[in-house]
Queue: 2 jobs
Job 1
Amino acid sequence: MTESANGAGGDAPGDDDPDATTIIDGESVAADVRADVAAHVETLADAGVTPGLATVLMSDDPASETYVSMKQRDCEEVGIESVHVEIDADAPADELYETIDDLNDRDDVHGILVQLPVPDHVDKRSVLRRIAPEKDVDGFHPENVGRLVAGDARFKPCTPHGVQKLLAAYDVETEGADAVVVGRSDIVGKPMANLLIQKSPVGNATTTVCHSRTEDLEGKLAAADIVIAAAGMSEFVDGSMLKPGATVIDVGINRVEAETEKGYELVGDVDYESATEVAGAITPVPGGVGPMTRAMLLHNTVKAAGIQSDVAIDLD
Ligand code: NDP
């Protein structure tokens, strides 16, 4: 690989060769975020407040069940109280709405997360609007989306916020950089692009958002200093498409069949092997963005507890 185009090369802990590709270690940065969260939990405890996160699961999907139990475990580790509500996947939508109303009213619950996707008979938009904006730790309520776009974010959505933290931790220069975000979903692509264009630290990038109707994706990727891949297509970005020295953040988590105990393995949207040959810095899958998404949920929950209990908590 050649020298980093945007200042990311060679600054990872233990990286002695300045020309080596930096492997962005999401586990390590996430551990720092969790330590920071744990310190804020103590500040809240001194003020008599225990932060609480409610998770709501209305699904039989084993993957959703796993995600929710991981979130509960994460909470426990840093001293956040977790409340869990399970609703039968066939239950009427009203049952979910009433659950959200109850959680909105509870003083011991500072953050509410409804695990997506919800069943087809439940309107996702209505669910997201029902959660009190000050408890919306996913950052999906229209009020919080609007605040983010306006440059006055309350809760930044966990995945793009986690990506921002990774870029900051590895001193990736975003100001003036050409960034390409592949994907325009409400939970990753759009908020990611919005964060990158803000006039703020880890912003000020010239940002192109690509999607399934984009023409000449290859040309756009070839010119990008920073690539954020979030299309949900296994290994579709390879090294030959990248600008030498680019920073590559692989958000994708895709299951592909493999001869493992589980019968599958997880791969990203980026072909890691070929991309590592060209990139200045790259996130692995797993171990890159995934741990950051989980850590930022804790960050947002503690921030929410601070806001609701009037305790000064200095978190972005
Ligand atoms: P969505 O399916 O909601 O969005 C995918 C996006 O990719 C869409 O905007 C789609 O375009 C675009 N896309 C599809 N095909 C192409 C193509 N050929 N060229 C360019 N763009 C394309 O996915 P999510 O945003 O929810 O998730 C993306 C990936 O990130 C998934 O693998 C998911 O599992 C993973 N993920 C990982 C997280 C983590 O913590 N690491 C957290 C959240 C998600 P269009 O809008 O036109 O359909």
Job 2
Amino acid sequence: MFSKILIANRGEIAVRVVRTARRMGIRTVAVYSDADAGSLHVAMADEAVHIGASPVGESYLRGDRIIAAAKATGAEAIHPGYGFLSENPDFVEMVEAAGLVFIGPSAASIRAMGLKDAAKRLMEEAGVPVVPGYHGEAQDIVLLSSKAREIGYPVLIKARAGGGGKGMRRVDHPDDFADALSGARREAQAAFGDDRVLIEKYVEKPRHIEVQVFGDNFGNAVHLFERDCSAQRRHQKVIEEAPAPGMTAEMRQAMTEAAVTAAKTISYSGAGTIEFIVDASGGLKPDRFWFMEMNTRLQVEHPVTEMITGIDLVEWQLRVAAGEKLPKCQEEIAFSGHAFEARIYAEDPERDFLPAIGTLHHLEFPQKAPAGSPVRIETGVHQGDTISPYYDPMIAKLVVHADDRRSALDALADALKETRIAGSVTNVGFLAALAQDADFTAGDVDTGLIGRKQAALTAKRRPDAGSIARAALAASGITPTETSPDDPWAALAGYSHFHPIERQVSLHFDAQEHAVALVTLADNRFAVRVDTAAPITLSRDDLAATALWPGHVTVFGNGASFTFTVPDPFANAADAEAGVGSMRAPMPGLVKLVRADKGDTVKKGQPLLILEAMKMEHTIAALHDGTIAEIAAEGAQVTDGTVLVRFVEQAGA
Ligand code: MV4
């Protein structure tokens, strides 16, 4: 076995690989960019080497620097994780030429699966079912349109170099073929520098079911059952599960056998995934699945397979790469129960999932689902970290396992409801809604489900009076435990029998202001009146599901979180004034350029200033129409939460 490996990746997968390596007594070397100097994967590894600036092209994609780091630290092998250089055959050859081991398949295996049309031809020859279609070299339009007729409409035109849905066009009628073809070619050329396409029969109600395979360098290959990744949004997986709902013994037998054939055909070594498209319009049938592509790496969603099989896939990767045989033969591999993985992202479901940036001021995950089943959190960040714009904005993967699908789904929903993140907007509420969706719960999931139900799954929720009251209690400065006498708020928080002190707190949610009055009662309780509603009695315990962060307070409950803007008594006067219509810095940075003046009338979406943060420029645009009362000065250094722009208060706002 290796004594030291280098991990050519970042974030949760780098942390994940360190964990298994450590358990096996293998030392680890992390690599990192400027933006990642203080990140978790660097802290977790035994050693770390700086490899360049924040953009991936200057760091995590620099194979030469990564190999030099491995040589300099005496690492014997390189684990690529997923993404970045993990499926780059030229990198594999560079690693091997440097006398190091690539923890993954051979360059030849990666190349065999790299071009989708060639991979499909190869699989067809090996007897693996592929979607009826044309995967040939000739590309003239007359030939392609006659192939489309032969296949039968509707057809799908796909980029041969493709993946991720780019360069894909569904065509329902021969009259639309020429336009669709030129559109697909243009997109394919732009995305991959290759405008060649393939034509396939369009599969209705598609499901994405993939099979985990593993090979070694002695010609052995096994499968570790299937995962269902049909819950996707614009080709981004959202929730994955294993096994696939509704899978029959017959279908599983056919799919896993095809997957092992695929792996053996290319003498595959290491962890791989055979992705199939399944026509679920008539339930799962053994003659309704087709090979789509092979991912020649460990996948993001590998933990659901680990949960149902009890096998550590990273351990297997290390053993196989070190020249050992597969630790188990097929008959020794079984699965039990059901697992789900939800991908928690810094993104805004209400704004069509726009990626978000921000500082994770509060980051809290449940250790266990209320029913007692384990919750596994895979994350590469800790509280206080900033979500940088350079990399994938995934915050964590939440993985649950239980005896059956129903219990696992309950555990997933419960765990999401107990996940508390403040400082950046996240998709946690959306994930909780999806986990409770009737079709998803019934296992009736196809790749179009999220798109069809997006409005309901992302419906904006408004805080109830109880949430507003809890937010006000937190914002008022009352702490979870009784204050000490030298606390400036002690006198106010204390109970006074003769002079009940009423405190006023103003909170804003979106454009709406809430006036809250708090009175301290006996026994550490508080009467909280929201606007004109009847007072609600709260205790210090009600602060548990709240988080205070610069200029804001976030309250959590039942799968939703509400973030309010709040005047901060400790911030400067301008900040304290700022309420509705103020825009704050989402991360610490430098005000690089200011394009509006005090007194200007601006339109929603108009760029107001540029904030340089994490060595990247962010345009801060007006959130709504209005007149500027105050705007940050050019050259100002700001922390996150600092008010950058304040609007003149409008009557009725
Ligand atoms: C298809 C298809 C229907 N028919 N192929 C999308 C990305 C690429 N990996 C394959 N994709 C599809 N190929 C045929 N012949 C529908 C999709 C598809 C899809 C597939 C898997 C997961 C999500 C998807 C979402 C939309 C379309």
